[in-house]
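Weekly puzzle thread! Below is a chain. First person to post its structure in token form gets bragging rights.
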Amino acid sequence: MNIVSKKGQPCPLKSITCQEGFCQDCAIPEKKTWCFDCDNTLCFTEGTDYKNAILNRRAIDKVNSLYNEGHTVWICTGRGSKSKIDWRELTETQLKEWGVKYHKLIMGKPPFDIFIDDLAYNTKDWLNDNI
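Winning reply:
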């Protein structure tokens, strides 16, 4: 299996430089599609108060690191799924203001290779390098 982290290169998931040729803790195959939830993953949101969401810099930095490594990054949000309100414009504006690097914004939640979400992989575990 090819590993993202190469000897002497920064690990995409940890703040270290790989010394052994690959990081056993990460062991993520190259060029995956990663999908991230927006609310309470990339930002902190109280209920459906999307306009006042506060960015999660640590999560955004990790997402941007994956993007910079060549992975495909999708943002998938359930905003408006129940209310049928179109939150796309606000969401795109927020992602731009927060500096999130991504390939695609999906207003809905279909399946992916790896899904980081406050309801799937626990966001806290991902942020603490426990996956």
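Puzzle host: Confirmed. Bonus trivia for everyone else. Residues 57-68 form the longest helix (12 residues).
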